Amino acid sequence: MTTGRRYNAGVQRAKGLLEMTAALYDSSLSYESKRGAQGAIQTDSRLGSHLKLSLTEASAGQKDGVDLSISQGGFRELNAVGEGKLSLLWINPSVAATMAFKGTGPFTQPMPLRTIAVFPSRDIVGFAVHRSTGVTSLEQIKKARIPLRLSTGRRVKPPFVQDSTMFTVTSVLQAAGFTLADVRRWGGRIQSVPRPSHPDRRGAIEDGKINAVFDEGIMSWGQPALEHGFRFLPVAGTVRSRMLAMGYRAAVMSTVQFPGLGENVETLDFSGWPMVVHAEMADDVAYALCEAIEARREVIPTDNYRPLDMSQICADGAETPCDIPFHPGALKFYREKGYLK
Asked: What is the pTM of this model?
């Protein structure tokens, strides 16, 4: 006779599938590469990384049953959370959720969102041009109609709301008075890469095939760009004001982090991996989500290469910017556990 503990058969299968799927990222379908200037070993996979998970209530008609649908994604998924079609979204960066909450940027009205946790990730947006161009400001590119050989994020169509990186880059350019289409019209070329650390960009920086990079993920390409004669342009004046009004936070590219920069450069923050839910999620469900994070904190990967700090994910900080209120159920958990400072 079996006397040990076991999972409900359905739960056992669901959990088994999740564990099995996670293990695929450490299988022969995955491969390792170096993450740009950081020199960190990064795992990439042919599997892709867009996740959608739906869990339905334990039994039909159960009055206190819980349905959860979980995803990681972008602006489209933020709309789905606001409309009650998706329970939880894990997104990057924090400003994407901020714009949804405020009803700015690509969002036409404020979304009823609340925060469960903000996982640490420190990043900024960078606008670099080669010194040989003579460019010292974003506005100068428009004024002189400079035909840049530009490397930027993945290829998406206007109005660029399919991707938070490209929305940010194109919004900055628009505030400076020009577009990617203008760059092409002036005789320039666009290199699109699927991620900031892509080796095609590094190669193009080194061999001079590009003379500009506009992107996030600056730790992977910022220092190599500086070492090959690029300078970083400030996001300042009217451009800065328009972006801050949208919900972005100001940031500084520091000479401490980037030797050879010369002086600190004003730019925009792109930090934080927030988990957001609908404001009307039941308190006990939000509480349970935090319990689950705590229970798996030792195996949840972090972008800062440090063990997950429960006190950090419920605090507004440089790596965890948060401009959306925390869900009451989440706050209850963090208070009871002593994590809330």
From this structure: 0.89
